[in-house]
Amino acid sequence: AEQAARLNDNLPEVHFALGSVYGATGKSTEAIAELQRALQLAPNSDEGYRRLADAYRAAGRKNEALDAYKKAISVNSYYWYNYLALGNAYLSFGDYDNALEGYKKVIELAPKNAVGYSDTGIVYFQKSQWNESIPWFQKALEVDPNYQIGYSNLGTAYFYLKRYEDSVKMFEKAVELSPNQEQAVGNLADAYRWSGQKEKANAAYDKAIALAQKELQVNPRQADALRHVALYYAKKGDDSLAQNFLRRARSVDANDVDLLYTEAVVDTLGNRSQEAIQALKTACEKGFPVSMITNDPEFTSLANQPQYQSLVKQYTQQARK
Hints:
The protein is mainly alpha-helical. The chain contains 19 helices and no strands. Helix 11 runs antiparallel to helix 12 and helix 16 packs antiparallel against helix 17.
């Protein structure tokens, strides 16, 4: 990409390429600068605005990210992927109503694409409405029987409904379709673990760790990969390595709500119940659904703790208002 820039610095494709490489390697500031330059050269590129929006999101600049996604739509209002990108952004920010609007438009423009149905299901899942999410995931698989993410999402819904054997079947299918997808392998490991298949679980955790490490070779500040590795080690019983990767993830974004939840799981498995409850409290304060906590079997050992009971009661009441 740098050689391309030396040959011709006035081509927008050059700066799109540089911006994408910087983004993939965690250099958000440089990515934003390159993508802004690309859009000066190609102001009618909806892809350019999507890439810029992704870079803003990675840098934690929410409003600018949303504005850039909306600009992509204004440039090309007939392309379903622009609405998908905006819907995904709203979902990541916890704005479920606007996320659903985005996915509704995706289904309208691309009814034979599984992603609109699947992502609609994800919204209901994030709202802890697992039974309501299942028909959407099933519709995605009806549209595309080879849709790996659909099997993974359906497996996750079954997992939270404590239908572990059904969960295993879905995750096995997801991994069969995408054997190198780290999160699918990690989900399968969880399902094996809770269905009592310890050896299979540990082997799957080892594979998921190896796949996440490959991602970290590209971008050592990939927060999701870092927290996933922390979870995998904790679930294997290696608390020391779990805390090491947790510290690395905190150095990227200590306020990320998913990281707080991961911290609570690691602390629970490491027999630090008070620290776990504090992490859950902070996560709930930042909007993490309490129903996800009460349905996660990882927190079974906290159920008799008065502070945990108080926390659940407080945020369950708030969720009903």
